[in-house]
Amino acid sequence: MNEPCDLDAVEARRLIGCKRLSAAELTESCIARILAVDPAVNAMVARDFDRARAAAAACDTATVRGEALGPLHGIPLGVKDLEDVAGLRTTYGSALFRDHVPEQDELIVQAARRSGAIVLGKTNTPEWGAGANTRNAVYGATGNPFDPVRSAAGSSGGSAVALATGMVPLATGSDMGGSLRNPAAFCGIVGFRPTPGLVPSEKRALGWNPLSVLGPMARTVPDLCLLLSCMASDDARDPLAYTVAGRSVRCGADFATPGGVDLAGLRVALTSDFGIAPTERHIAEVFAEKTMLFRHVFARCEEASPDCAGTNEAFEALRAAAALASHHDRVRNTPDAVGPNVHADVEAGLRLSALDLARAMQHQTVLYRRWVRFFDDFDIILSPAVTVSPRPWSELFPVSIDGTPTRTYFHWLALAYAVSMVGHPAASLPVGLDSNGMPFGLQIVGRRGGDAQVLAVAAALGRLLAEDPRTARPVPDIAALAAAAPLRDAPGFLGFG
Fold first, then answer.
1. Is 155 among the catalytic positions?
2. What does the alpha-carbon distance between residue 255 and residue 274 come to, in Å, rounded to a whole number?
């Protein structure tokens, strides 16, 4: 691949700045890739090509005039369909919002545009982000770029597929139970869950709840850092974006490039399941094989995990409470227009007592303090990003793993939500293929507030692993995707199964 759309965002921005590539050329290359490949995977579901072309022309005029250029100047961006874009159809994957067109950009979209990004379109998501299989009753299913009959995970699945296939250099996402990390792992790209509040959000129904965050996705860690630097800020509309009056405590420039780190000085814990996740044997074996190739580079590397007992039960309660706040009225008033995952969440919430919720919140605090103590002895935790290899998207969620039934439709995400529960930052880094020939993602978890360290470790590992074909980032076959049958023709494409 040697098209402009395949350039890393950092390199594309450099070429635009030195007038060796125009924003219009890059935008047209991305549009051409979407038109060629998207029928096979259904990732870029609402397109804004006319406005993108106009924005690209304006970027090129500014470049020629020698105006000050933003860090994302001329870079096309995919925006997850949970996030509002003014004047562009934004459905949240919900039939109730099939024709919804917001009048105002969401905060992170505003921030990206101020930095010079060009919104190219909306990327597919499950209904209201509920679940990690990107399919809904509005746009249908999104296929994995390495095998379109398999799931791209979610809920930021459309963003991950758009990145892996070169439709855009950068994309936005969000994460409660792993929605930035799971699709990154399934599609061979990078996703990062920041510390709650680092990227402000004005839309959480429970503003003080740290489970849901916004974050960046990209093909490389430096690209991801570039986007994060434009997202991170203080904003009073997000109560988790704590601030000190008169002093900035969230400077985006701090994340513009990955920091340096000496891998040889790190104390690393390895865990395939955190003691509570239903990780399939195949994934545990691949994790052991992959880490054996590079664990020697660390100062110390051993099997260890924080005590995560009770995580599943507490997360289930807290997730259900968040669903009540967001979706109770929709399920009560328009039940036939709401899918099974959202129904399940609301029904679980209605079974909660005040005592159940209090105990879940109390246990979340216990877990947090266990994790803080664990990081007295370790700098980084490494785990698989997802418990399973990509499975067919026709399966709404894994009902069993290695023959054992899962607890809920999201239990298979426990490797990710164990981290969400305690608010630690985590990245998913592509590390070659698993034994099924599908992408394998390595989760890198840092200490409380250790966003910069996680990104530095991810960048350093990314450089190291790129030298070995067994661990280098995999790339999908673009020509095969361009020749593939349209995904919309597959049985069960539209809806929930």
1. yes
2. 28
Kindly name the residue from 29, 94, 155, 420 that is annotated as catalytic: 155
Distance CA 321, CA 446 (A): 27
Q: Is the pTM for the entire model greater than 0.70?
A: yes
| Residue 225 · residue 258 · CB < 8 Å | yes
Our answer to whether residue 179 is catalytic in this structure is yes
pLDDT at 251: 78
Start-to-end CA distance of the chain, whole Å, equals: 35
**Residues β-bridged to residue 214:** 174
- Burial class of residue 400 (count of CB atoms within 10 Å of its CB; 0-12, 13-18, 19+): exposed
Cα–Cα distance, 20 to 17 (Å, whole number)? 8
- Phi-psi label, residue 344: left if phi above 0, alpha if psi -120 to 50, beta otherwise: alpha
Cα atoms in the Cβ-side hemisphere of radius 13 Å centred on 170: 36
Domains of the chain: 4-313+354-489 (3.90.1300.10)
The token pair that represents 123 in the structure block: 């990327």
| The pLDDT of residue 84 is above 70 | yes
Work out the pLDDT band at 242, boundaries 50, 70, 90.
confident
Q: Which of 80, 151, 156, 201 is catalytic?
A: 80
- Residue in 179, 201, 326, 428 annotated catalytic: 179
Q: How confident is the model at residue 2 (pLDDT cuts 50, 70, 90)?
A: confident
